[in-house]
Amino acid sequence: MRTPFLRSLAWAPTVALSWLWGLGFFYAIHVTLTYGWLGFIAFAVPNATGLFLFGWVLNSPRRNPAETIASFGGHYALLFLLCQIFAVSLTVFSFVSCLWVPLFGAHGGLVAALLVIVACALGHAATLGQLRLVHLALLPVGVGAGLLALWSLRAAPSVPPLPFAAFDARFLGLVVPTLVGFLLGPWMDVQQWQRVVEIRRTGASPGLAYGAGALIFLGLLTLNAALAAAVGTGHAVILSDGLPAAQGAVAAGIRAAGLDLAAIGFTLWATIAVVSTIDSSYAATRWLMTQITTRSTAPLMAFVPEGLVGSPLWIMLAAGGIAAAAVSNALPPIYLMIPFATLLVGAAACLVCTAFGSTLRHDALLNLMIGLAAAIIFLTGYVLPIPALMALAPLIGLIGALPMVRERLGGRGAALPEAVTPAAPVGTAVMPVSTAVAAVIPMRRDEGNVSHGFDGAWFVLRMTPTYDDTNSVGNIYFANYFRWVGKARELFFNICVPHFDLAKTDYYILTRSFTHDFRREAREFDPVTVRIRVAAHNRKFVTLEHEIHSDTHGLLGRGEQSLMFVDPQTYRPLDIPRVVLEGFFPYLPETSAYVARRRAAASAGPALGALG
């Protein structure tokens, strides 16, 4: 794809298919047959709108989804993993109970297991870019199969037209959960985060990709609604809660009419929807867990292989177990859909605020407990039915996000824990973390055209290139960008570890890897800003990320480097020296285990003193 426009549109099919899991594919049939065409519109439009808004919001240059995941992915890991477990389990459960069993009878579990294995293998072997091409090829096949089933249903006995609206108390109670769940749904789905990061990395537009993807997704839902209308009402079944469910009505209607061609088309269409969901789930979960495990400082990681901890197979096994239990107990599909409007919405709202730059105040355990209470309230309102309880449940689930929402809306959030003052070398001025991170250290001027200092956690080097920095063509020579990052790094170290003496040191700092993604070019006398900060660290390695900006042209490029520490005599790898951690302490990310330990020790200190 040569233009950003075409590159963006090429992502639309995989965006649409990755969002078409069990909730979208089969629930579109249920709402159409249960609540009429207006009920389908009330379900489909918020669903597609939430998908579009996710891409549109993260299309803004003021928000960096890659940085959000890198910095805060670990904080929201429980949200992402629970979302994948429920999504995959609902997809597998729906395929077995709403298609295979009504259409073919037994052995649905074996077929579903085979599909999951094939999808996981595809997600393991292919990159996201390759999955995009696979989904691009699968989409017309799936739509063609669905249209074949729709065309074949013409031979079925005629059915009365569906009503425009057939609302009841449960439908009214579902309005608020539908809006909350679908507007926040893409934010809790790590598949969509991986896509938007990759879309931006390739220079395409997430807003355009997700806009086109939402339209395709809306068309796919409409196809299933048309299939539902073609088979008509009368195929709903009563499940274990005593309530009717119509998710399997299309499969039951096809079997009742004895339409083999329709059965083949609908099965192929559903199979493509299942595979294109689970392969993406596997790939995205592995992508997230790989980032988390490689940056983890947990002692367990020294004994358990990273590949084992980060493997998505555990998620797939958990989802398969839930699906098997739901099928064996004839559980209504709505029970597996409840978490997306109750259990997970508090953490998802916190994640949205984090993406907008709010201070991290996400308490995963608190949000989980509030979400469980909201789920119980929703379930009570659904069974009785009491619409007010159903409408209230997702609002209760959002309570855990109120501090971050209030801050984002301009109110005062909850107070942060008191900052800890790190130990510092003798003769070094000490500043509390809250002050050091928030303050801008005055720029120090080195030469006539160079100055440097801290802006929050970022170390900033400002300079003006001259003809000395250009090549024979006239633009800045490419190697100078690397040299500027190196200069910024050395000045950063000089402030953080001011007493480092190369002749007396007991450690060397080596560059383990360095990457830089060029975006634009600068020219002479165009002021340039190099920004560098600590992105992550574990026991032995520190990852620094950098950005180079032009006052005239904006972002010139970004990248990262990995540092390691070795013995100056034997070059044996060392753990990060304590003096380095103490020097970096005011500028370490919130995800740092070292920061957490220092704060915990400081908070325990006053308490022990009071006891004494």
UniProtKB/TrEMBL annotation:
Membrane-spanning intervals of the chain: 9-29, 35-58, 78-103, 109-126, 133-151, 171-188, 208-232, 252-278, 299-328, 334-357, 364-382
Entry-linked InterPro entries: HotDog_dom_sf
Keywords: Hydrolase, Membrane, Transmembrane, Transmembrane helix
Cross-referenced Gene3D superfamilies: Hotdog Thioesterase
GO MF term set: hydrolase activity
Protein name as catalogued: YbgC/YbaW family acyl-CoA thioester hydrolase
Organism: Methylobacterium goesingense
